[in-house]
Each structure stands twice: as C-alpha cells, then as structure tokens.
Amino acid sequence: MSAPVDLQALVAAVGDGLMVCDARGAITLWNPACERMFGHTEADVLGQRMDMIIPERLRKRHWEGYEKTMATGITKYGHDVLRVPAVDKQGNSLSIAFTVAMLHDADGKVSAIAAVIRDETERFNDERNLKKRIAELEAALAARP
C-alpha cells in the first residue's frame, strides 16, 4: 500500500505554478511557484480575480472564455497547452504556458478551475530571436546574385 500524499506539501514543493480560481474567477489557491513567477504573495491575491496577471488588452477575451468554460464545463486546455502573455507585479511581460483541470462540486457542477502554469518567457524569447535570425539569413541568401 502506498503512503498517503501530503497535498499541501506537494502544492508548496512543485516547481510549476498552481492556481485555483472559483466559479467567479477569484483566486483560492496560489502556490510559492506562482509567487516566484508573478511576484504577488498569496496574501495579495487570495479572493482577488486574476486580472493582476492578465495583460489589460486581453482581459475581455479571457473573461469571456472563462465564463463560457464555467457555464459549459468544457475546455480543450485540460490536455492542450495554452500559451499566452501575462504580466508580473512590476508590469513586466511574461510568456506562460498552462493546462487546466475542471473541479466539480458534489452535484457535478463546475465549481473551480485549477491551472498548472510554467513561465516560458526565456524559451519564447529564444524562439523569437531564432526566427528573426533565420529570416535575416534567408533575406541575405535571397539577395545574393
């Protein structure tokens, strides 16, 4: 028989951000990896909507998708990774990737969404620089006689 898992210790120890939001979008769980990634402490965010990490230009679209997901209980991001821009406490841009898990109440209704989040800013910037360099090299080759 396996040993019981201390879920609080697991949530605190994992390297990826773990965030849970209720049906209204209020944050109910924010692990230390989220604190490192976004700069907001757990005390700063608990009970708040996640607007502090969503770039302002994307908030309307985010909340439309969130509300639809809560109403239907359907998301493709349980398996497919979603890559989006985000912002940290200082307003710096981040590139994050995440999947979600729908959490249900005793009646089977969606009650919350859990997100597993990874900061991919460095990978995103490296990929963008590589694509730029490839385009420059292709242009240089095309300009050769």
Major sheet size, sense and barrel closure: 5 strands, antiparallel
- Arithmetic mean of pLDDT: 90
User: Low-confidence stretches at least 5 residues in length (pLDDT < 50)?
Assistant: none
Distance between the termini: 72 Å
Principal-axes geometry comes out as elongated
- Which quaternary structure do these chains form? single chain
Relative strand content: 25-35%
The helical percent reads 25-40%
Query: What's the order of the H and E elements?
Result: HEEHHHEEEH
Q: How many E-type strands? A: 5
Our count of helices gives 5
Order of strands across the widest beta sheet? 2-1-5-4-3
Q: Structural class given helices, strands, pairing?
A: alpha+beta
Radius of gyration: 19 Å
Notable characteristics:
5 strands; 5 helices; alpha+beta; single chain; 5-stranded antiparallel beta sheet; 145 residues
Provide a descriptive summary of the structure in words:
The protein has a five-stranded antiparallel beta sheet. It is elongated, with a radius of gyration of 19 Å. By secondary structure, it is α+β, with helices and mostly antiparallel strands. Helices cover 38% and strands 26% of the residues. The protein starts with 6 loop residues before the first helix and ends with a helix.
